[in-house]
């Protein structure tokens, strides 16, 4: 399986691409094997164009939640007009899309949010953005279905005393969850970094690499 990050930023990043900012992050979205798109946010068309992705190769679109940085009606319309099918997933109801078996799980966020366990029969992805601590049922599902790559929310960075910890994660929370879930997850990655709550990418990547956590950036491709 291959995961390509189309965007790795939280909602405070401008949805208009800023070519003058080398640290720019689009709103978070990801593409599995060029076929399955997670979150049709407002930055997706720009990412697809600049990354040279064939839009007509995208067959399925799923969504984590309806916040505007993750779900944009115009983007979804453009994707479906180019042949993609939009699937509304429901917590706890597994879905089969082509070769992919998908388990939607309830995320820890202030609006209804889904996290996903996605398997192609050979490897498994956990995609869990916009979340504070993982909920018990999510952890139980990961233990039952061990994961090759997990993508965790990292909105808050190392900032302390931020109220957003009740629906997003800071990096201390990520590292604590990693320490607990390491027996069940082979590789860890972070995405959904807030513009106002993080250092530059290289400093963040170097810091997290010491903990064996990959810091995603726009365009990063991870095979697992």
* Continuous helix count: 5
* DSSP helix fraction: 10-25%
For the terminal residues, how far apart are their CA atoms? 6 Å
**If strands are numbered along the chain, what order do they take across the biggest sheet?**
6-7-8-9-10-11-12
User: Would you count the extended β strands for me?
Assistant: 13
Keyphrases for this structure?
224 residues, alpha/beta, seven-stranded mixed β-sheet, six-stranded mixed β-sheet, 5 helices, globular
Can you walk me through this structure?
With 224 residues, the chain is α/β, with parallel strands linked by helices. It has 5 helices and 13 strands. The protein has helices at residues 44-50, 73-81, 136-144, 171-181, 201-209, and strands at residues 2-7, 29-32, 36-38, 60-62, 85-86, 95-97, 100-106, 114-119, 124-128, 147-153, 185-191, 213-215, 221-223. The strands form 2 sheets. The protein has a 7-stranded mixed β-sheet with strand order 6-7-8-9-10-11-12. It has a 6-stranded mixed β-sheet with strand order 5-4-3-2-1-13. Strand 11 (185-191), helix 5 (201-209) and strand 12 form a beta-alpha-beta unit. The mean pLDDT is 98.
């Amino acid at each position: 399986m291959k995961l390509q990050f189309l965007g790795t930023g939280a909602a405070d990043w401008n949805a208009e691409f800023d070519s003058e900012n080398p640290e720019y992050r689009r709103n978070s979205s990801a593409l599995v094997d060029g076929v399955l798109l997670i979150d049709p946010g407002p930055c997706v068309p720009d990412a697809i164009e600049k990354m040279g992705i064939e839009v007509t190769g995208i067959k399925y679109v799923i969504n984590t939640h309806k916040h505007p940085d993750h779900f944009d009606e115009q983007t979804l319309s453009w994707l479906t007009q180019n042949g993609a099918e939009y699937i509304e997933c429901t917590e706890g109801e597994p879905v089969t899309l082509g070769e992919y078996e998908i388990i939607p799980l309830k995320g820890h966020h202030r609006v209804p949010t889904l996290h996903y366990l996605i398997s192609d029969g050979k490897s498994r992805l956990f995609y869990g953005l916009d979340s504070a601590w993982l909920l018990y049922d999510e952890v139980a599902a990961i233990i039952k279905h061990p994961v090759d790559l997990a993508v965790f929310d990292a909105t808050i960075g190392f900032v302390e005393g931020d109220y957003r910890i009740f629906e997003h994660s800071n990096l201390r929370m990520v590292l604590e969850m990693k320490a607990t879930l390491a027996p069940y997850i082979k590789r860890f990655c972070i995405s959904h970094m807030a513009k106002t709550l993080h250092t530059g990418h290289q400093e963040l990547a170097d810091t997290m690499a010491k903990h064996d956590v990959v810091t995603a950036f726009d365009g990063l491709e991870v095979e697992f």
